[in-house]
Design brief:
By secondary structure, the chain is an alpha/beta fold. It has three domains: about 90 residues, Immunoglobulin-like (Sandwich), CATH 2.60.40.3080; about 375 residues, TIM Barrel (Alpha-Beta Barrel); about 120 residues, no CATH class. The strands form six sheets. The protein has a seven-stranded parallel sheet with strand order 15-14-13-12-11-2-18, with helices on one face. The chain is globular, with a radius of gyration of 26 Å. The relative contact order is 0.12.
Amino acid sequence: MRTILFIFLHLSLTTAAIAQLTDDCKLQLGTNLSGVVDYGTELPFVDLMHNARMWYTKDIDNPNAAFDSGFADELTYRSDGYPTHVPQQVAGADYDQRVVTIWANTSGWPAGQYTVLWEGTGELSFWGGFENLNQTDDHRIVFDFLNPFDNTLEMTIVTSDINDPIRNIRVLMPGTEATYETEPFYSLWLEKLSIFPSVRFMDWGTTNSWGQPDNWSWDDPSLFAWEDRAQMDHYTWATNKGIPYEMMIKLLNDYDLDGWICVPHRASDDYIEQMAILFRDNLESDRQLSVEYSNEIWNWIFGQTQWLNKYGCEQTGVSWPEGIVPYVQNCLDIWSEVFANEMDRITRVAGVQMGWQDVSNRMLRSLTPGSFDAMSPTFYFGLTEEGDAALDDLGANATVADVAFYARQSMAETSTLLEIQKTELADPLGVPIVFYEGGQHITGDPFGVEPSYGQALLDIQRDTSMYNMYLEWFAFLTTLQEGESPLQLMNFSFVAPRSSRYGSWGILETMDQDLSVTAAPKYSAILETIEACEETVSLEEVFIDSKKYKVYPNPTGDLLTIAGDLLNKKLVIYDGVGQAVLNQKVNATSVVLDLSSLESGAYFIRIISGDGSEVLSVVVE
């Protein structure tokens, strides 16, 4: 046994370190969360019914039945979205109809035994790549998904009694039947998310074209009432209303995250007020909340831009974009009134178009001074029109190096645009810049069309050149930071598969991505940037043993148990020179850590909560 001499030290960020940010701490990286869809690989919830596709219909007893008979809108439903009964007769249909949903991509699903629960009287059936399906009682089915990758799962309500219809269907991940109600979030998703201090809910709330059947249906001027919002008991949250606000609040509160929410463009004044009240009264007071009206209301591919232009500009005779400013102003004013005595809890964000300085100027200078706290462009880099054309000429011969070359040209142009946004708008208005989205935007033109150099677009997403470009881009962005607060960047996006046609937005392709097999250079660069700041600590002040926690055995050669109140806490272990060697969130009354890989010596454990932190010590032999 080695004899170890050590001094108990307290680890803390000093006031001086915060006031004079080092280059490693000039950026604060959060992330946008992906919306829930049946084909997505980001799975935040253990109940997969939440991301089921909206109902479609099938003919009964039709030997030539189509995949979708197209009568879903003609059926009758309960307020929670479940059909009032099945089968249903529909005018114009030759056959009675059943309702069906599907999960088209199960690549992100963990392998194991799934459990299906429901209420009501009726029958469910399943089709897809599962095994060993067994109905254990009237309201419970289990099946094995031993290899979910590239498989599909389809579920049909075969019959449903009109007097006791099938409802509250739950499709539960392996091992979650006993805990899904108290622990609704998928543990692997939480683990990957734990590196971020903040999340933006734009896609969680289906902000783009919110409440509309598609991007091009804007011929309805009506506003939505508060009761029209996404509801907790709705059969799926993969709708044009998104995930309920209650789940956003729960995520922020339970895991000590700051949030960024987008108010729907067609929300009535009462809706906006009630939404603000809900967050004011239910979000923990030490959680910071950024508030934005809709999303990219100048982007013509989105329904909110078309709707606002029609009713704010065309029908009022006011020029664009000035005609849409009153909607932004009204939203910010209502939130200001609700939070009148607690304004330090919210950041009122005014979004701007990074690449069109004139639009940014006309929008922000039309807002009432003092009614917004920050301006927000994107921090994307991608391909210029010239770069896309050059790569098109290369076609299938284009390489990763070619794509990286033209992406770096875009970075140079974009850096100039961002400097102009700061010097000509943010600085004169006296407001900071925060970035609502950003990262790589390396896609072909036109968007949504398979480019001739598509393979190179896919390959660069796993290449070291992407990692290098991210670090280069972050280095530039640090030059925009001023003052005592780090520059806030919201990565876009978290988990999503690669696509040469629609873009490869996720920093991870799946939540269980093995980085030793499939590289994730964007994730690696972001993780490195975050950890570089977290490892900046000072060793000072004499440590006093905590009475709240027990640490044993101490010294230890391998396993260490920490017992005490570890609910919604964060653990960081530092070595003797203040470098973080472990960083994880916990939610338990005790935790066992494997320290066998650590060198012998003295280590310090910081237990962090919303109320502060405590530091413990341990000796590794």
